[in-house]
Amino acid sequence: MATPSHLPVAIIGAGPVGLAAAAHLLAQGQDPVILEQGAEVGAGIRSWGHVRLFSPWQYVVDEAAAVLLTEQGWTRPTDDGHPTGHDFLDQYHVPLAAVPAIASRLRLGSRVIGVTRSGFDKMKSFGREDAPFRVDLERADGTTDSLLARAVVDASGTILSPNPIGASGRPVPGEAAAAGHIAYGVPDILGAARERYAGRRVLVIGSGHSAFNALLDLARLGNEASATTVTWAVRRPAARFAGLFGGGAADGLAERGALGSRTRDLVENGSVQLVAGFRATRVTQGTEGLTIAGDDTVIGPVDEVIVATGFRPDLSLLSELRVALDPVVESPVALAPLIDPNVHSCGSVPPHGAEELRHPEPDLYIAGMKSYGRAPTFLMLTGYEQVRSIACAIAGDWAAAREVRLVLPETGVCSTSLVDAPGASCCGATIEDVAAATGMSSCCGGGPAREADTSASSSCCGGATTSPQVIQLTPRRRFPATIGD
């Protein structure tokens, strides 16, 4: 390529993977410029800074970044400690951003609004690869500017693009109108948002670790505000509950396994009412609160809803570039089959790097959480290895770029379509085992296991009904004092 080699490599986003990309590019003798729309680094992490990472320090410190930090007299945290998001920022991320080699290349308050080839729209081909990238920016004061770059690494993440309540991928009717009572992600239930949730009827929607954290925080809040009621709705039917709570003691990350085990305890002891097979179709505001309707179930009224259904990438800023994305996962085409959550868990993702992250647009890479598209199986360690490989590729060392080294901790949970088979589980438990362990029947709802009504007028997670089943929230007993300790 004839793209001027003196131009910088533009990194979009000053999160953990973005700063790690800068560290690896510096190690390769490249000149990065880091573009961050926030007024400070790690703005996305600050939104969930109260959450404790289930990965220990061992898996969240990038080695190239550690070299730069150590040169500045940094003391590395103990490998087996588990930081909160705020700990991560204070003890690692913010100090990394202050390293002179990073700080001098960091542009805060610079929101990337688009990337193209200078002088070439998506349709033009002749001479395209010789043209530098043009990165268009909007500053905090609303003024715009642009810069030229020889390569682009988009590590902007997905935290600003949460998935909606609706299982169909679109917001449901009434969702936008009820925005004042709906939070996405993991709100600071025990801190800044305490008054919002204390003594309220709260519905949590989602089945991942974000949902687990929200449920556990609500349980702790309920120890002090006993009027708090918690309902948890998941989309998967009871017949697919195997693996719902993670791998437990078999998880290579002990804290991740413990999250699921503690959440399972909430269901077992009745502190949380679990509604299975729930796919929201409408949100309605009334004098008594919000009701959330599903295909055959209505939950409510509730006061607040926490939506922890994951995130998706915002690909609009790359719309003038030639990207090759899987139509389902929305990740790079070669990466998609390696991370498909229908097949893989976090710990079973094969090693991958620049080769799998390439696009038809040379020297364009999407890295970090955004590279996984809609797949929720990303670990920070994966992103660090991605940008190590990408930095080698940009520097022209494809041998090192292809020599990908990545060993991830096992989840203790396998993912396979076999879990859909009646009475079967990929990890060895039957539906009956799950029902017995959780004190539930296979019908939609919490409480003691009971014999399902098989009449034509009843429903068991999707069967025929003559009218919707209403899940009415009622006061429950005080949360056990040990929850969340």
* Proportion in β-strands: 15-25%
The shape, in one word, is globular
Largest sheet: 5 strands, parallel
- Please tell me the CATH architecture of the largest domain by its name: 3-Layer(bba) Sandwich
Account of the protein in words:
- The chain is an alpha/beta fold.
- The chain folds into 2 domains: 244 residues, FAD/NAD(P)-binding domain; 187 residues, 3-Layer(bba) Sandwich (FAD/NAD(P)-binding domain), CATH 3.50.50.
- It is 24% helix and 16% strand.
- It is built from 13 helices and 17 strands.
- A 5-stranded parallel sheet has the order 3-2-1-7-16, covered by helices on one side. A 5-stranded parallel sheet has the order 8-15-9-10-11, covered by helices on one side.
- Strand 9, helix 7 and strand 10 form a beta-alpha-beta unit.
- Helix 1 packs parallel to helix 11 and helix 7 crosses helix 8.
- The longest helix has 16 residues.
- It is globular and about 65 Å long.
- The protein starts with 8 loop residues before the first strand and ends in a 14-residue tail after the last strand.
- The C terminus is likely disordered.
